[in-house]
Every structure is written in C-alpha cells, then in structure tokens.
Amino acid sequence: MDIPGFPARKGALKLLDAVLRRGETLDQAANNALQGIVSGPDRALARALAGEALRWLVDLDALIDSATKQALPDDAKPRMALRLMLAGWLRLETPPHAVIATGLELLSGGPRRLAHGVFSALVRQDVKLPPAPTLPDAAVGRWGDRAAAIAVGLPVPPPLDLTLRDPAGSASWAERLGGISLMTGHIRLPRGTAVENLEGFNEGAWWVQDLAASLPARLLGAGAGRRVLDLCAAPGGKTMHLASAGWQVTAIDSSARRLERMQANLDRTGTVAELVQADAMIWQPAEPFDAVLLDAPCTATGTCRRHPDVLHRIGPRQIAELAELQAALLDRAVGWVKPGGQLVYAVCSLEPEEGERQAAQVPLTPDPIRAEELPAGLSPSADGWLRTDPGMLADAGGLDGFFVARWRHD
What we know:
The chain is an alpha/beta fold and 410 residues long. 40% of the residues lie in helices and 14% in strands.
C-alpha cells in the first residue's frame, strides 16, 4: 500500500490492539508489533497516534458513540480505526481529508462506509475534546477525589527534565540550554528536544530524569563518603544522583542488560558506583548501610502522562501482586539500615496500596520530609510523606505521580 502515512496508521492499529486486547505496555508493543513493519518517522508517528488515542480514549469513544445508531463493540476494528482517525485530526491536527485517505485503508475489505460516515459527521459538527482527558471509570474509582486533579496534568506528554551532576551550575545551565529550573540541580526543556544533541550530553553534565523521580535520592542529602544501597536501581538516575552527592553507592538490579546501560551512563557522567546483578529477595549484604533507597517495582500509574497505556492496563490484580512484592522488599530493606541510618521508600504509583499503606507498616522512626526539601509548590502530607500527582505544578509542565516516605533507624 503506497499511501504516504498509511504504514504509521497500520502500526498504530497494532499498538492499540496490543495494549487494549493483550495488556502489553506501549513500549513492549512498539518493540514487538512495529518490528520490520514501521521505521523512521512513521514509527514515531505510530507511537504518537496510539499514545494520543490511549490518552483520550474515553472521550474519543464518547464521540464515536454519539454518531452511531448502534454501539460498536470495544474491540471492533471500525472503533479502533476511528479512535486513531479522531486522534490524528483532533490531537495531531492532521487535515480531515488526509485522515480519511489513510484511516479508511485500515478497513480495506471491511466496513469503510460506516467509519467514513461517522468521521465525516463528527467533522461537520466540528466536535472538540474537553480541556483534560476523561479518566476511565476504574481509575476514577481508585483515585477518588484526586482523579480530577490528576487529569489536569494529562492533556499533553511531559516536558524534558534534566538532573545536573553539579547542582551549583543550575542557573548557568538553564541559560545555556534555554530552559527553566524548578529547584537546584534541575533543568526543564520543551518536549521533543533531541537529547544527544544538547550541550553537556557528551561530557556527562546531566542525565534525563523526571523532576518527581529525582526527589527520593535528593531526600538522602549529601553522602560525605557514607555507604548507600540503591535497590532496584535501574534505569540509574538515582544511582548517578547519589554518587554525584558524595555517596559510596552499591546499586542492585536483577537485569544484566539494564546494568550495562547503567554502566554506560555512569561512564558518560563520570560517576562511580558498585553495580551488582542480583535478586534483591535473595541477595544479602555483608554489612548494613548508612542509607537504603528502595524505589520499588510498581504499577507505574504515576507515569500516565508519558505512558497513557497504564490508564487502561492496570487493575486490582496487578496492584495486589506488586503491593505484595513491595512489602517483601521493604521488609528486607529495613534490616539493611544500620543504627542511625535512613531508609527512603518510593514508587511512581498513584495507588495508595503501593504508597501510604506500605509506609504505614514500616517499623522504623519516621523522618518527616520537610517543605524546604521540595520544589516550590509541593508540600509533604501531615504524616511527613510526599505524594505528587501529574496535575501538580501544571503551569510549569507538571510532574510524574510519586509516593515517597523516609525513616530513621534509631
């Protein structure tokens, strides 16, 4: 099929099917479904179309349903094609005639007339999407009163955040890169920036890390040569942050491949850490540490502005399974903190089962997080914990959803 843009639409349809029918992540689906089919700019367009369709799925389906006499099944191919057609028109600003030329080909041999009629009717009505995506009912049920505020942070993918190896250069790097700094050691740039082409990349002056993701390591302060354990350390931003803050870091991860990437980033940034490939549920250190940082495996629902697939893939089963693993990891981490040492627990999840309910079970003395340790506009809870949502700091570009808590071993 030699229609410009059609391979991207075909790839996007495969991505939607993989996420919604098979429960794959968008990243997994891109690696599997697009291999050998879509490349270069078409691959990026396929990801963008599928991502926007997932981000606005509830609202796109409402528009489709408003223009059909009989509701289409959720997994019907015409509905899937129309989701992508509407995402291309309403989110990527593709002209309607181009949407029709590429989108209807997805239904070759199928009900093209139905899809053409529905799309054309919505174009004639000049329909609009709401200011923020409508969240799926299941997510609203879990997040309750927080849901509306979370949705405010989801209309667009996030900007690019950098963590500086030397925080003292924040003002200088913000000026050189044309970005803004929301706290010392942080730079924010517009999304779409080619990371490898930015000044400072080759010399390792910074690494990519969402502002919220940088906070757990920040909350351990300066290392002054003390020993810290970074559990579940990949992709490595926390390890580099701790090493650059003067800690002697032991970083544990079960994946040799992820550790290889971590070592490459350590080499680029000139930071040093001991990398250990091991299962944290089996591995045992020779002696306890001055600090332990556990950024635990989780549902990652807090990353929904950059990974909108989590809005539709995650449910009670995944939450319960991961909460069980988090509790087991926390139990081990507590035993590896020496007297006088600190433990920081974090998850990039919006689920209380993975955050607040885990923290409530830790048998150490709380070390409350203080407002002055956080970016302006964020504040700790009454318990001294930190809960960030994607809608926070929205005027400055938002941040991922995280839960962070800190304790001291008296």
